[in-house]
Amino acid sequence: MSDKLENLYREILVEIGEDISRNGILDTPKRAAKAMKFLTHGYEQDLDEVVNGAIFDSDNDAMVIVKDIELYSMCEHHILPFIGKVHVGYLPTGKVIGLSKIARIVDMFARRLQIQENLTKQIAHAVQDVTGAAGVGVIVEAKHMCMMMRGVEKQNSVMTSSTMLGQFRSSQNTRNEFLTLIEKR
Ligand SMILES: Nc1nc2c(ncn2[C@@H]2O[C@H](COP(=O)(O)OP(=O)(O)OP(=O)(O)O)[C@@H](O)[C@H]2O)c(=O)[nH]1
Ligand SMILES: [Zn+2]
């Protein structure tokens, strides 16, 4: 763990008016640095490492969906959490990806500073790249702490973003099948 991040957190605590010598705060710079490194560990990952070769031959060409993947990310504007769910669907063309790897791909991008739209797009393109699918659909639904805890202070708005690639974009039937299966229609 870099001491630099720890020192920067110490400076932040001083700047916000904390007494960094009080008992409960003493180890906070170290803890906060460790937490921040965890929350942004996606910067240290790449797609090959995350997928780890888990691409398998399959003659199934029916739509595969993984829905309700938990999402914990942080917005690049305020470094505050946005939390929600990701739904991913794809149309295999001879190759399927290990089930857990879709969630790992979501996490790799989520554990970087993001805006939700870009996160959605990155997940879709990564699934497309590793599977060679005929199409990919990704929908992200999330609540943004920067809108809830501060700023406009709206507690019930949920942002929905979607990326549709290939057949999910060109065929309304494919898109409808996806939306029906994730119960968005
Ligand atoms: N489109 C999009 N906007 C986001 C996301 N996360 C945060 N934002 C928005 O980014 C914008 C930044 O606006 P600014 O006016 O520069 O910053 P600000 O003064 O902190 O804005 P307020 O949040 O309105 O107080 C705000 O409207 C946020 O709601 C995201 O994932 N996608
Ligand atoms: Zn924000």
UniProtKB/TrEMBL annotation:
Entry GO MF terms: GTP binding; GTP cyclohydrolase I activity; zinc ion binding
Q: Which SUPFAM superfamilies match?
A: Tetrahydrobiopterin biosynthesis enzymes-like
Protein EC: 3.5.4.16
Q: One Pfam family, short name please? A: GTP_cyclohydroI
The reaction(s) catalysed by this protein are: GTP + H2O = 7,8-dihydroneopterin 3'-triphosphate + formate + H(+)
Q: Which UniProt keywords apply?
A: GTP-binding, Hydrolase, Metal-binding, Nucleotide-binding, One-carbon metabolism, Zinc
Q: Which InterPro entries match?
A: GTP-CH-I_C/QueF, GTP-CH-I_N, GTP_CycHdrlase_I, GTP_CycHdrlase_I_CS, GTP_CycHdrlase_I_dom
Alphabetized Gene3D superfamilies for the sequence: 1.10.286.10, 3.30.1130.10
Superkingdom of this entry's organism?
Bacteria
GO BP annotations, alphabetical order? one-carbon metabolic process; tetrahydrobiopterin biosynthetic process; tetrahydrofolate biosynthetic process
Listed GO cellular component terms?
Answer: cytoplasm
Point out the signal peptide segment: none
Which residues participate in Zn(2+) binding? C75, H78, C146
Keyword Glycoprotein present in the record's keywords: the answer is no
Which pathway, metabolic or otherwise, does it act in? Cofactor biosynthesis; 7,8-dihydroneopterin triphosphate biosynthesis; 7,8-dihydroneopterin triphosphate from GTP: step 1/1
- Subunit record text: Homopolymer.
Q: Which family does it belong to?
A: Belongs to the GTP cyclohydrolase I family.
Protein name as it appears in the record: GTP cyclohydrolase 1
